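Action item from last week, closing it out:
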Amino acid sequence: MRRDFPLGALLAYVGLPRSTFYYRVSHPAHDRHAAVRPLVRSVFEGSHGAYGYRRVTLALERDHGIRIDRKTVAKVMHAEGLRAKGRRRSRYNSYRGTVGKVAPNLLGRHFMTDAPMRRLVSDVTQFNVGGRRAYLSPPVDLYNGEVVSWRVGPSPDVELTLGMLADAEDRLRGSGAVTRTDQGFQYQTPRWRDRLASLGCTQSMSRKATCLDNAPAESFFGRLKTEFSDGSDHA
């Protein structure tokens, strides 16, 4: 616009002092994050838009050896217009009423623990794969979010959940872990309760229709479905 209007008139119009204008011209702004911007975009696009700033931060350190504060990554993603796609809620519900024994709610919403294999959460979730249903059952350690074991099967029956326990038997035996689930029919059966007891674990159940009581398991399933699915192949 300086070709058409005097500089003084333009500065007066926008209310910018002449000294400030010349200072900015001689001291152009430096983008401290210029080197990391393309990597952030690469990681984000490599996840098909599933990663939020926390996962992008972890991927930068794991795959590129770059340690950067996650708040900085959040700012870069915001500036670049990179926003993780939302999660779809699972429609599978294993609750079938009181078909066995409902265990007490021992954990409440106290999801913190200072040692591994002390407090575990578990649930069953449903995926649609190639037009067929598949069910996943994992125990998740509240100490560090580790998936201790997992089983996948065509039916959300008690065999699926017992198989999950069998795969984690060496770590569960004698641990004294409090194992939290919802009131799904699988967890009310004598077979499930007896198996937990034989491993030295204590059963805990969330309250009926209170998904927040088992929030860590729900959160894990939500992240899993977001990050490893395009959103069209699960229920």
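Closing note: The first strand starts at residue 119 and ends at 122.
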